[in-house]
């Protein structure tokens, strides 16, 4: 499947942290369709391995996304929420949500108080905090809402629309990290029949957005020699981003996330990846911003670690933007990385 098509399909499938069942089953079918076996660990990570000897290389991308859960159903039928992951309260109101219930999808809206009813001039300047947000599903009582199938703990996602602001730049909620999921699936398809002298494991992890939980389980159980986390990397090329950080540009190639809030990447891998990218004529950038990737917790188990960042604007917003060309170059770089590690292992 074309990388772009796979990514679009993945974006449309819900997978709030802790509720990744649907997106996991989609990826499982794609992997098994390549003639490979998969396994699921106790926390829900999806894993497949090719090769059985030589250095152990792990490629990982998280399949969970930001979202909400039903925390309470009010007597008037409206629903209170709890955020799952780092959602900015400014992006909540005036949105359409889809609640996954035992009876199917229920659509709701996160309403905004109209200016016509505001009695305080300062109301227009206030950010509505998540504790004050209500989901309106068109009912007038708790029983009506429950009859729709809605229960406490049901997950919900913002209704997604996919747009292209250029032929190359996709814009949607959930590019983080369905882009990475599609990229490592693409690299798996390219590597599965290569028979390199490596053990290469591909992992689609869970619960990254609430603390890298799935990756920690992977690190503890697999303890790879190398770990490459494929995630998005916040760009600095959008309006109002300032000049504190090194320029990371959308469309200018994958970025080595050398520093973030949880880890410092391996200097040895930096040198290797620079050589690989130069030889393959793949553009490369460097990132020193915030956030974290699954690689941070796997590194704790002794792995050489490097996150590959897919440059993305407007992280954790409804309008995450990334370049398909950058994704294709990231997949190409992954294949070249595997080839280089295999080549180096033969020299030892």
Task: Describe what this molecule looks like in 3D.
It is globular and about 75 Å long. The protein is an alpha+beta fold. 28% of the residues lie in helices and 26% in strands. The strands form two sheets. Strands 1, 2, 3, 10, 11, 12, 13, 14, 15, 16 and 17 form an eleven-stranded mixed beta sheet that branches. Strands 4-5-8-7-6-9 form a six-stranded antiparallel beta barrel. The longest helix is centred in the last third of the chain and has 24 residues, at 324-347. It folds into two domains: 3-65 and 173-347, Zn peptidases (Aminopeptidase, 3-Layer(aba) Sandwich), CATH 3.40.630; 67-158, Elongation Factor Tu (Ef-tu), domain 3.
Are there runs of 5+ residues with pLDDT below 50, and where?
none
Annotated CATH architecture of the largest domain: 3-Layer(aba) Sandwich
N-end to C-end Cα span: 37 Å
| Shape annotation | globular
**Measured on Cα atoms, how large is the radius of gyration?**
21 Å
- SS field, number of helical segments: 8
**CATH homologous superfamily identity of the largest domain:** Zn peptidases
- In N-to-C order, the SSE pattern is HHEEEEEEEEHEEEHEHEEHEHEEH
CATH topology of the largest domain: Aminopeptidase
CATH class membership of the largest domain: Alpha Beta
The mean pLDDT is 93
Structural class: alpha+beta
Any chance you could write out the topology, listing elements then pairs?
Elements: H1 3-12, H2 21-32, E1 39-40, E2 46-50, E3 56-62, E4 67-73, E5 79-84, E6 95-101, E7 104-110, E8 134-136, H3 142-147, E9 155-158, E10 163-164, E11 169-172, H4 175-191, E12 199-205, H5 213-222, E13 226-234, E14 255-257, H6 267-280, E15 285-287, H7 295-299, E16 304-313, E17 320-323, H8 324-347
Parallel strand pairs: 3-12, 3-13, 13-16, 14-15
Antiparallel strand pairs: 1-2, 2-12, 4-5, 4-9, 5-8, 6-7, 6-9, 7-8, 10-11, 11-17, 14-16, 16-17
């Amino acid at each position: 499947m074309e990388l772009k098509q796979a990514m679009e399909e993945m974006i449309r499938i819900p997978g709030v942290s802790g509720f990744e069942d649907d997106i996991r089953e989609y990826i499982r079918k794609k992997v098994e369709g390549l003639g490979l076996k998969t396994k699921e660990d106790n926390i829900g990570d999806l894993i497949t391995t090719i090769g059985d000897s030589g250095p152990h290389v792990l490629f990982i991308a998280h399949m969970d996304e930001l979202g909400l859960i039903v925390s309470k159903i009010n007597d008037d039928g409206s629903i209170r929420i709890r955020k799952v992951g780092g959602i900015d309260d400014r992006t909540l109101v005036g949105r359409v949500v889809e609640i996954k219930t035992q009876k199917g999808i229920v659509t709701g809206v996160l309403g905004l108080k109209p200016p016509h009813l505001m009695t305080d001039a300062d109301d227009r300047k206030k950010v509505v905090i998540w504790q004050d947000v209500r989901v309106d599903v068109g009912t007038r009582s708790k029983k009506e809402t429950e009859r729709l199938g809605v229960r406490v703990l049901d997950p919900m996602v913002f209704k997604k629309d996919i747009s292209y602001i250029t032929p190359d730049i996709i814009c949607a909620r959930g590019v983080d990290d369905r882009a990475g999921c599609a990229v490592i699936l693409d690299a798996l398809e390219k590597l599965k029949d290569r028979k390199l002298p490596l053990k290469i494991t591909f992992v689609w992890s869970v619960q990254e957005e609430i603390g890298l939980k799935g990756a920690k389980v992977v690190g503890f159980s697999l303890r790879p020699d190398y770990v490459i986390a494929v995630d998005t990397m916040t760009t600095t090329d959008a309006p109002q981003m300032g000049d504190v950080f090194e320029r990371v540009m959308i469309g200018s190639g994958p970025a080595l996330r050398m520093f973030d809030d949880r880890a410092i990447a391996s200097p040895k891998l930096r040198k290797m990846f620079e050589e690989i990218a130069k030889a393959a004529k793949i553009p490369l950038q460097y990132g020193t911003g915030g956030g974290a990737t699954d690689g941070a917790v796997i590194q704790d188990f002794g792995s050489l670690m490097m996150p590959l960042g897919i440059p993305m604007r407007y992280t954790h917003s409804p309008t995450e933007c990334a370049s398909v060309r950058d994704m294709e170059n990231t997949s190409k770089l992954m294949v070249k990385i595997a080839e280089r590690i295999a080549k180096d292992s033969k020299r030892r």
